[in-house]
Amino acid sequence: MSYLFTSESVSEGHPDKVCDRVSDTVLDLFLRAEPEARVACETFATTDRVIIGGEVRASADNLPSILGKLEGAVRGAIKDIGYEQKKFHHAHLKFQSFLHEQSADIAMGVDGGSDKDEGAGDQGLMFGYACRETDVLMPAAIHYSHKILQKLAAVRKADADSILGPDSKSQITLVYDDQGRPTSAHKVVLSTQHADGASINDIRTLVKPIIADVLPQGWMVGEEDLLVNPTGNFVIGGPDGDAGLTGRKIIVDTYGGAAPHGGGAFSGKDPTKVDRSAAYAARYLAKNVVAAGLADRCTIQLAYAIGVAEPVSVYADTHGTGTISDKRLEDALIESMNLTPRGIREHLGLNKAIYAPTAAYGHFGRLAGEAGPGSFSWEATDLVDKLASAAK
After folding, report:
1. Active-site positions?
2. For a tag on the chain, would you pick the N or C end, based on fewer CB atoms within 10 A?
3. Residue 122 and residue 327: Cα distance in Å, rounded?
4. What is the per-residue pLDDT across 68-83, written as a single tens digit (0 to 9) for each?
5. 67: left (phi over 0), alpha (psi -120 to 50) or beta
């Protein structure tokens, strides 16, 4: 039986994504100075104002220098996104920082857990997913939603006089056949901030070729199924149009609703926080399972207890597509990768300033190294041979 499925994405200029970018910029600033720094940074943005707060830890030698660079780094990130609006301008907005020292109780559990290894920074459950719907082993609806907005941003930034603004959203509804394979697009929705005076026709003319170029051959929808700026006007955008907060777009960040989410946000958290690092590890494992030919679809769940290094559970579901039993696959996963927080960080090289590029257009489905050395390392398929061997 065929069905429809929808996913959405939001651009780097969306208010919540501005906050994710700021939080990850702060994280990168700390990690660049001190790879073992601890950061949990939250951001709030509204008209003419950005506020950051949270818990950090760095050495006394490095901390003053890092804090002295905070404001410039935040303003630079907002400038890179493209905000020079009257009521939200990178050079003129009010900036406040309320970062403070990390809780000693949390630090104690992370630095030396109950099993004498580095413990998890919190309890929680994380999911990873991979499937054969796209060449990057991601669900198709979220993948193409991201790609439309990435290309839209590139077009905007390449033209100093562009009618496009930084804030935009995409949404794609796909048709799936009775085998669960995407076969065509049903509806495409695109809302983009624009210059005052730009007409809907101007915007449609600009965005239609972008959408057609991203979608697979023959998938482009007709005029009646392409909804561009349905409200009719989108001049006021970004944090001036709607307040933003870190971590409010976690489904956009992961699988667009096509797979479960443990609930934890990623941005602004250093990799001792398993909300982030274990979600990356779960995606890495799921992607390598599919790339190794052990399944066509794979969902992996990892779960942790605060202060304890080893995961409390490892779960795999190949949705009836596996070449071995799910229990055998779970054993192979445990055999193939050290899933303690330190093991994950070392295997994937996560103690680096690699996080700002993850803040928009998805943490998954990217190319390993696409934003510089070490970036998106969890998208590599270098575990294929080891997994295949362990699964025998």
Report:
1. 14, 16-17, 42, 55, 169, 234, 242-243, 248-249, 269, 273, 275
2. N
3. 26
4. 999 999 999 999 999 9
5. alpha
